[in-house]
Amino acid sequence: MKNTNLFVDNTLPNATEIEKLEKVDRVIEIIVGKPNKQYAGMAGTEAKIQLNGKFATVDEVGSYVLSELAKMPEQLQKVAIVSLKVDKKVSMGIVNDIKEELRKVKALKINYTTFEGDAFNNLQQ
Predict the structure, then answer these.
(1) How is domain 22-116 classified at the architecture level of CATH?
(2) What is the pTM of this model?
């Protein structure tokens, strides 16, 4: 994936049915997690969205995706995938809010980034 400094804790969940995305030129990345120690004082302790090296609100997700799509060649725009890198401790509420914003801008191809492994290990803290 893209080289981005993480502002949030991002321990990815495990999954058994995974597929590697080979063509990263068509991937738009959204990272979600609680701010790490360096940014917790500034951003608080609630889960935050990170878009291209900055914190963002749910309302900014749609415009971010549209701007990233506009940077891509037209043939890639049609096959673009939004990759959600969500910390395994984050509640699904923020994920559902992000997915709603993605629906509004017709970004319907979504991928969840995970590690390969037993999904039951996700229950362990």
Answers:
(1) 2-Layer Sandwich (3.30)
(2) 0.89
pLDDT tens by residue, the chain, 125 residues: 455 688 998 888 889 888 888 888 899 999 999 999 888 888 888 999 999 989 999 999 999 999 999 999 999 999 999 999 999 999 999 999 999 999 999 999 999 999 888 887 777 65
Contact 6, 31 (CB under 8 A): yes
Work out the angle at residue 62's Cα, subtended by the Cα atoms of residues 68 and 91, and round it to the nearest 5 degrees: 115
- Sorted by where each begins, the domain ranges of the chain are 22-116
Nearest Cα to Cα of residue 77 among 111, 107, 110: 107
The pairing of beta strand 110-112 with beta strand 27-33: unpaired
Chain-centroid distance of CA 114 in Å reads 11
Question: How many C-beta atoms surround the C-beta of residue 58 within 10 A?
Answer: 13
Residue 45: exposure state from Cβ atoms within 10 A (0-12, 13-18, ≥19): exposed
% helix, strand, coil for the chain, step of 5: 35, 25, 40
